[in-house]
Structure formats: C-alpha cells, structure tokens
Amino acid sequence: MSYLIKFAFFADYFKFIFTPLLITSHRPLYRKISETFFIYLFCLILSTSISIAVYYFIDTPQRKAEHIDLNFGYIFLSCFFLPLIEEIVFRLSLIYSRCNLSFTTAGLFFLIINNFLKTRDIFIGENYYLIRIISSLMISILIGIIFYFAYKKYEGMLAYFFENNFRTVFYISSLIFAFLHISNFQISLDKYLVYPLIILPQLIFGLTAGFIRIKYGFLYCLSVHILNNLIPTLIIYLYFL
Fold first, then answer.
1. What is the count of structural domains for the chain?
2. For the chain, percent helix, then strand, then coil, each to nearest 5?
3. What is the pTM of this model?
4. Please, how many CA atoms are within 13 Å of residue 234, restricted to the half-sphere of its CB?
C-alpha cells in the first residue's frame, strides 16, 4: 500500500492530461524533484516507443538533411538556449501574469525574427549565426518591454481570459508546440495523414511539460526540456566520437 501511495502522483498526472486544472504542489523539494523525474521517465519511454514503432512500421517523410557540428555553440543553443525560449513561449504563460505574458510575447517574436533572418544570405554562413541570434534577442526584448506596458490596459481582461479558458490555452499551446516540429521533416503532401503520428511524441512531451510547469513550477519543466534535448545530443556525440 505504501508503495502505491508513493506513486499516487501519477494519478494526478493522468487526471490533469484529460482535465487540465490550475493546481500546484506544496510537497518538499526532494519530492518535487523525484516526482518530476519519474513523470519525465514515463514520458521518455512512451515517446521513444512510439517513435520506434512509427519509424519501423510506417513509411514516414525523411528528415531534413542538416550538417551537425557538435561544438560548444551547437550544444548550448540546442540543449539550453532553445529549450529556454520554447518553454517561455509555450509554458510560462500557462500561469498568467503580465510579466509572464510579456516574456512569452518576446520569445514568440524571437522565434519569428530569428527564422526570418536566417533566410537572408548574409546570415546563412556559420560565422553569422551569433549575430543573427543576438540581433533577434535584442529586438524581441525591446518588443517584450513595449508589450509589458501595453498589456497593463487590458490586464483584467487578460487575467479573466486565461483563468476561464485555461484548458483551451493548455491544449492549444501543446498542439502548436508539437506541430512546429513538422518543420524537422521534408513536406510531402501524399503523406499528410502520417504527420500526426510523427509529432505524437512531441505532443506527449508538450502535455507532460505543461503538467510539470503547472504543478511543480517553471524551472522544473525547463530542466526536463533541457534533459530531453541533451540526451539525444550526447548519444549523437558519443556515437561520432
């Protein structure tokens, strides 16, 4: 019985996924860390199993060919900086505050501006990627500050909207997070029915990270996202070492 009680938090996890509610945990730090780890481990095993099944049993579109140079810059950007931006955009404002929403707005503009700039010839060369990122970051921070003051006029309306539409906001943010990963694959219209299966692991991670953010806090879901990106990066690095 005591063994089941220790893992009763899984019941909260599954209940939240199907009926999202604004809940928080007041458990001690070590309990939050251990529960977050076990929930992420479950998510990792489930997502990996689905990815393997889809890869071996379904004719999926090919991934976009990318040259990966496993230097410090790549590891920092893919395993630390990008998870931070994505968590700010998709998870931070699940708990509303004007500050959170301003950070989310800045992060969203960063993704848009950075994607726009990398299509320009001057930023394609690897010597310019830091210029692109720093430029995008400076512009998006300025936009975030502007929106912070702009949101003040509508703060009551925004707080009411987020509080009364939390379930919708939660599911939409998780779905958008998952669908953005379609860009990792070559677009093939004759295989459009396969795309939901391809991004299912990302959807499961998005829902899981959302639960962790609401129940345990932003730093916990950020840590899980960093770990989720770091694991395959280290595997690739050790494979090509």
1. 1
2. 80, 0, 20
3. 0.88
4. 7
